TrEMBL record:
<comment type="similarity">
    <text>Belongs to the class-III pyridoxal-phosphate-dependent aminotransferase family.</text>
</comment>
<dbReference type="GO" id="GO:0005829">
    <property type="term" value="C:cytosol"/>
</dbReference>
<dbReference type="Pfam" id="PF00202">
    <property type="entry name" value="Aminotran_3"/>
</dbReference>
<dbReference type="GO" id="GO:0008483">
    <property type="term" value="F:transaminase activity"/>
</dbReference>
<dbReference type="GO" id="GO:0030170">
    <property type="term" value="F:pyridoxal phosphate binding"/>
</dbReference>
<protein>
    <recommendedName>
        <fullName>Adenosylmethionine-8-amino-7-oxononanoate aminotransferase</fullName>
    </recommendedName>
</protein>
<dbReference type="InterPro" id="IPR015421">
    <property type="entry name" value="PyrdxlP-dep_Trfase_major"/>
</dbReference>
<keyword id="KW-0808">Transferase</keyword>
<keyword id="KW-0663">Pyridoxal phosphate</keyword>
<keyword id="KW-0032">Aminotransferase</keyword>
<dbReference type="InterPro" id="IPR049704">
    <property type="entry name" value="Aminotrans_3_PPA_site"/>
</dbReference>
<dbReference type="InterPro" id="IPR005814">
    <property type="entry name" value="Aminotrans_3"/>
</dbReference>
<dbReference type="InterPro" id="IPR015422">
    <property type="entry name" value="PyrdxlP-dep_Trfase_small"/>
</dbReference>
<dbReference type="InterPro" id="IPR015424">
    <property type="entry name" value="PyrdxlP-dep_Trfase"/>
</dbReference>
Length: 439
């Protein structure tokens, strides 16, 4: 009997034995191509020598020193390198241990900023229906994923949710992509006006939506309009790049491709690449300076923030992504993966949409391509796909429809950036087998 919970009650999980490049192996010697990097985590694959060497070297010097007493060289260098590559205006880094912690820090920083700048009425958060921002209480309240929220309602932070930017299902007949983007972005303005601008603190969104919808990129112009609206009403723009950041979409920060800079951006997953648990909240100099000039300190903190070993791992990862050119490789290999998915499944009667950016791709499944009708939820298609792919030796990240009951099942692919052409073929081949066995 295992004392670990939760456990998938229907199936005993295999025990992982080792990782090598894009592959994981279980204790029976079975090989799995990690086509989703777990959940878009393992961007460097599983046995990166630079990262493991950096971790060992840090352990040999000092494993832990509390940030209340010391700073550390890897934490300082990591923050410098992040800011060197960060969106315009982003100037400070707050290191935490994962995505949800980064989201909590972002929410509290935004709140403290408004309290200290004489706008204490600003406490409301607006996010989108198609979103996941973490499982801690503030992050859960922010996300628009109903089945995760409902069991814990009422949630303590007041949030409201507007439409996502999801062209495959939202764009009206005869409407251009740009018109669609403006229309759904304008919902933010309507919601701010409905709530009263003096009560709204922040708008939170993932630039490219991850787990809830499957690599949904915004249409051109959407985030620029969002930025304009936030500026017009003094609302902070918080971008959640926990899943889509750190090169996953082909640029280090996903928002670079949308021509906008946030006030706060959070990252995690790819930052530690699975070698260490680490996340970060990055904010503008303006926010930082307002708090520094006010009470002087951000009223927050965790024991393991800025952990030297985690920072050393992340510094090695970030060096590979930037100087090592791996974020660019995500873009190049992402195009190849997309072309192979189009060639393999573009005409498939049950594949409604193939989408994404960089090595962040998804297939959305439909019963009927014409009407885009999803499969009935009772079919549990995403669960069947996951199981069939796993059986065939492919790890992919599937999810059922969640938005307004209209979205189809999808499979998310987020393989390591070290992927080679032969691995692309293997993904498409095994996914084809899984689809054939599941539908
Ligand atoms: N935001 C997004 C967009 C995520 O995908 C996730 C994790 N799936 C989180 C936040 C929460 O991160 P963590 O699981 O590290 O707390």
């Amino acid at each position: 009997m295992s004392h670990i919970f939760p456990r998938n009650s229907r199936a005993a999980l295999p025990m992982v034995a080792r990782g090598e490049g894009v592959y994981l192996f279980d204790t029976d010697g079975k090989r799995y191509l990690d086509g989703s990097g777990g959940a878009a985590v393992s961007c460097l694959g599983h046995s990166d020598p630079d990262v493991t060497a950096a971790i060992k070297a840090q352990l040999d010097s000092v494993a832990f020193a509390h940030t209340g007493f010391f700073t550390s060289e890897p934490a300082e260098r990591l923050a410098d390198l992040l800011i060197e590559h960060a969106p315009h205006g982003i100037d400070r880094v707050y290191l935490v241990s994962g995505g949800s912690e980064a989201m909590e820090a972002a929410l509290k920083l935004a709140r403290q900023y408004f309290i200290e700048t004489g706008q204490p009425g600003r406490h409301r958060v607006i996010a989108r229906r198609q979103s996941y921002h973490g499982n801690t209480l503030g992050a859960l309240a922010t996300g628009g994923n109903m089945w995760r929220r409902e069991p814990f309602a009422p949630l303590m932070i007041e949030t409201s949710h507007i439409a996502p930017c999801y062209a495959y299902r939202g764009q009206a007949p005869g409407e251009s992509e740009r018109e669609y983007g403006q229309r759904v972005a304008d919902e933010l303005e309507e919601e701010i006006l409905r709530l009263g601008p003096e009560t709204v603190m922040a708008f939170v969104a993932e630039p490219v939506v991850g787990a809830t919808a499957g690599a949904v990129p915004p249409v051109a112009g959407y985030f620029q309009r969002i930025r304009e609206i936030c500026d017009a009403y003094g609302v902070l723009l918080i971008l959640d790049e926990v899943m889509c950041g750190m090169g996953r979409t082909g640029t280090l920060f996903a928002c670079e491709q949308d021509g906008v800079a946030p006030d706060i951006v959070i990252i995690a997953k790819g930052l530690g690449a699975g070698y260490q648990p680490i996340g970060a909240m990055l904010c503008s100099g303006a926010i930082h300076d307002a708090i520094a000039a006010g009470s002087g300190a951000f009223l927050h903190g965790h024991t393991y923030m800025g952990h030297p070993v985690a920072a050393a791992a992340a510094l090695a990862v970030l060096t590979r992504l930037t100087a090592g050119g791996l974020a660019d490789r995500s873009r190049v290999m992402g195009e190849r993966l997309n072309a192979a998915l189009e060639a393999g499944f573009g005409q498939h009667p049950h594949v409604g949409d193939i989408r994404g950016r960089g090595l962040f791709r998804a297939l959305e499944f439909v019963e009927d391509r014409e009407t885009k009708r999803p499969f009935p939820p009772e079919k549990g298609l995403h669960k069947r796909l996951k199981a069939a792919a796993f059986e065939a030796g492919l790890i992919c990240y599937p999810m059922g429809g969640t938005i307004d009951g209209r979205q189809g099942d999808h499979v998310l692919l987020a393989p390591p950036f070290i992927l080679e052409d032969a691995h692309v073929d293997e993904i498409v081949d095994k996914l084809g087998t899984a689809i054939a066995r599941s539908i």
